[in-house]
Design goal:
121 residues; mainly beta; two-stranded antiparallel ribbon; 0% helix
């Protein structure tokens, strides 16, 4: 395949910060690549609870860097604050996914796409 794209880069990152009397953070980021494509997924969660009159603070972020071929991505961010009552609570959740693909040939290393394999030559 002349002129095809067979190099792809996907980098994902996640960060979670929480400030309060009781806090919980969790992050994960994962990628996979093969000839012809790459994917990535990142999640960040931050939860904080404080005793009144304190105010809990949370921040959850995810990010991507992707190059090569056609890119499809999705990002979602939820933020919920419960500022009232004896234990105000704040929750942040961020999710990001990305995939890139193009003219790369996943089977080119195995000679499974040559025209002679299919009796055309």
């Amino acid at each position: 395949m002349a002129g095809s794209i067979d190099k792809f880069l996907v980098e994902v990152s996640s960060t979670a910060l929480a400030l309060g009397d009781r806090t919980m953070t969790d992050t994960t980021a994962s990628t996979a690549a093969w000839p012809g494509g790459a994917i990535g997924f990142a999640v960040a969660v931050a939860v904080a609870q404080d005793t009144a009159p304190g105010t809990p603070e949370t921040s959850a972020t995810t990010g991507i860097i992707a190059t090569g071929g056609s890119m499809t991505s999705s990002s979602t961010h939820w933020s919920v604050d419960f500022p009232y009552g004896p234990t105000p609570t704040s929750v942040d959740v961020s999710l990001t996914s990305v995939s890139v693909h193009g003219g790369g040939d996943a089977f080119s290393g195995y000679d499974l796409v040559s025209s002679s394999l299919h009796g055309l030559l």
